[in-house]
Amino acid sequence: MAINAVVWGENVHEQTNKTVSDLYPEGLHGAIAKGLNADAGISATTATLQEPDHGLTEERLAQTDVLLWWGHAAHGDVEDEVVERVVRHVWAGMGLLVLHSGHFAKVFKRLMGTPCNLYWREAGERERIWSVNRNHPIAKGLPEHFELENEEMYGEPFGIPEPDETVFISWFQGGEVFRSGATWKRGAGKVFYFRPGHETYPTYHDDNVLKVLTNAVHWACTGRAQDVQDVDAAPNVPVSEALEPIEQRGATLHEEGEEGFR
Amino acid sequence: MAINAVVWGENVHEQTNKTVSDLYPEGLHGAIAKGLNADAGISATTATLQEPDHGLTEERLAQTDVLLWWGHAAHGDVEDEVVERVVRHVWAGMGLLVLHSGHFAKVFKRLMGTPCNLYWREAGERERIWSVNRNHPIAKGLPEHFELENEEMYGEPFGIPEPDETVFISWFQGGEVFRSGATWKRGAGKVFYFRPGHETYPTYHDDNVLKVLTNAVHWACTGRAQDVQDVDAAPNVPVSEALEPIEQRGATLHEEGEEGFR
Amino acid sequence: MAINAVVWGENVHEQTNKTVSDLYPEGLHGAIAKGLNADAGISATTATLQEPDHGLTEERLAQTDVLLWWGHAAHGDVEDEVVERVVRHVWAGMGLLVLHSGHFAKVFKRLMGTPCNLYWREAGERERIWSVNRNHPIAKGLPEHFELENEEMYGEPFGIPEPDETVFISWFQGGEVFRSGATWKRGAGKVFYFRPGHETYPTYHDDNVLKVLTNAVHWACTGRAQDVQDVDAAPNVPVSEALEPIEQRGATLHEEGEEGFR
Amino acid sequence: MAINAVVWGENVHEQTNKTVSDLYPEGLHGAIAKGLNADAGISATTATLQEPDHGLTEERLAQTDVLLWWGHAAHGDVEDEVVERVVRHVWAGMGLLVLHSGHFAKVFKRLMGTPCNLYWREAGERERIWSVNRNHPIAKGLPEHFELENEEMYGEPFGIPEPDETVFISWFQGGEVFRSGATWKRGAGKVFYFRPGHETYPTYHDDNVLKVLTNAVHWACTGRAQDVQDVDAAPNVPVSEALEPIEQRGATLHEEGEEGFR
ThuA-like domain location, by residue (chains A, B, C, D) (predicted)? Predict the structure, then answer.
């Protein structure tokens, strides 16, 4: 059965900037979804900021294996309730791919616990992306390096936690480097950040970029069948149900079986 | 010069529960600060929930090398503004030690990006803490294992990100295990979680526990002199100031030197 | 196409100890292979110390997706040439599962770069294995904890590098804990260590243990199609083939295109 | 008391290549030791391949807090016995800094368990080293980036295990990137790899490079007072000395208190 991928797009510059709408007549989200759907194992749809619940209702997220997130100008317009909903689905087992300027998206900052900041320059310079983790499933079938002739520069230090795995590092023509592909786990969910994707360049029409995203969707999908339920429960284990026989000793704050503080 | 440590205590059960106030007449925070002050290299003071700004004003945090956090019943009463202030100081370089039930403190959940949940049982059972990371500065001078005859049980799975380092793992009489000492870095700040410390037991009078906390204060202190300024800035690097000579190419969203979106 | 798994068994105590031969008439390797073959996606065969090349010729390893390694009394009898051969196949992309007393196997110590030592006790005590990494593919379908009523104890500190992922932690009746399931990557190959499996107990007839091993075979398999070739090559990139135009500057040790030192 | 640092130099090209001997009349090891000794907290001496035991006797290593290793043309001439001696001291608690072409040194490959290979080019091109880990003690007092106008290029993929911490990433004029500063722990010892240092360039006269090495010596020093003794011992814990009362059950291979297999 195909993996359910949802590509979330902010869909702002597509409406206001002719360069962007010319490059991406169906939106960046549309171009990404089209690229993913070229893989028979993926069924990708889109959601946007402007829809009710930003297109990310509880029902839809519950059926989403992997969510991709592209945002830039309107991070502040994303409702906190939807952010929390997304975060809880990641904790339960949904995969999350955060793209480019999504480094400052609420969902990413919320899951990382760090500022997620960086240096940047919009000069259309050359970016060369190096694979540093041999045989990583996200780099499968890609050359050891590939170029994007025109991209925005993002420069280190990138304000992220030490990645579980560093998959890609970028070289920029203007002299900077950047950890362009990195993975983390949050709860039961897998998270991947991928750097390229500035809206004024044709990055999401690049075969290598689409290959990375396709690979990453497969990598991030754990299936939702074995989801963690009640993702932040902190169950009390009564003395009488201890795995090894023990007896109650000393003073207690709680009555047997009482809820804990949160 | 001595390390400035501030021990933050929720100070609730000390006022409402005779077991707790008998064990800790100066509060858990008071007992911890007293233990730290036995080390000539540390100058520890206390702050509590009930003070204005919970005792954690901008001025005070700016002079704090390491903050210790003990909370339990009143996590929800900690003002979000103070939480953000603490988080930003960690990002800048302040050390943070999170103690026991602080696993559900807003500051810890905010920095981890995970649910931080666990199983628990309040049976006064025996806990044995094993050092698993040889020669780690936080375990310096401690035996390979030590016991707390009466403690609350916390059981895995513990809802944290994969630690940068696992320092201690606990064995519980009732059959559970727990990653009792773990480290992470967040921005420029070092974070350590240490499990023991239930308020109805004399844990913070235990020499080994105080040794761990003393070691951890030294470990977490980076000095504030080399603090990161403006912790979440994302500076634009104009084309004219690129480290390697490049020329502007392609379309741009931003004018030269303009602020980026957040 | 099924995953090619090879279960390597030392096959010593099976020949010399009646308890072991009664429990494992087809050898520990035979029992493990049988358990794996219950999964339609795996085709498992065996190899033993006593065969020429210990059953691990270049040809056989080249067709092996995942190698499982059980050894105990005869680590010293494994030829260094075969060890290097195994190590190079791991670097190229072969998965490796190291079982129980294999912590002291030459192949494991060689890949870890650490002493791999531990405390131990052969008392037939109860071991309880806790899953600490939610939704990890190796823990898929397993309960949060399971028991082995009779096992050898291994105790921390375990002399391994900080794992990439800690998947299982064991509780022992006699008071110890142990990181029982841990993963690392070495070159292009994935490595998993799994603790239980003492030869005088029926561990490899336990459904949960066989489930772990079956899951781990799937997890460790990257397919050999995208293997790294010439795993420790250090190719020179001539100035004339640099990705960005540069000119030769300063003194050199090597002539253009010459081999480097090793 | 000052940290005892020993700078090990292969001392081959200093004798055979005029460019090298002109740049480093006292050897690369001499220049590095001189740079370290500018710090009042470090007492650095040198050792070379040509001395008996390569200058690294058991007695000398026992008094060494941090060993620095520079080798290139003669890795194969380093005796295996000395390699094992160094490795065991690292496991016990000695710090180790591996420099530049030392990526292929026996001691480094032995401790990493990976091929440690890379791409390279000797073109005297510009290298720019970026600090990616804010406030890391090894990067203390350094700018966010610094340049070496002439260096050898090393390019990814670098065949190392996922670092515990990535501290520096290099940008090369010819289009490559490299993880230039990375840390690992092996046993009780801390290991740092630092990339720059080709012998035909004045790298070890550069203030920033010497600052990195000085910082790294402080970082890697744990003092030898709390060394792990008998670094690869695997002690038996007799049933009668179990921390929790247990009784012997089931069959055993070993007599009470017998040595384990290795």
Answer: 6-220
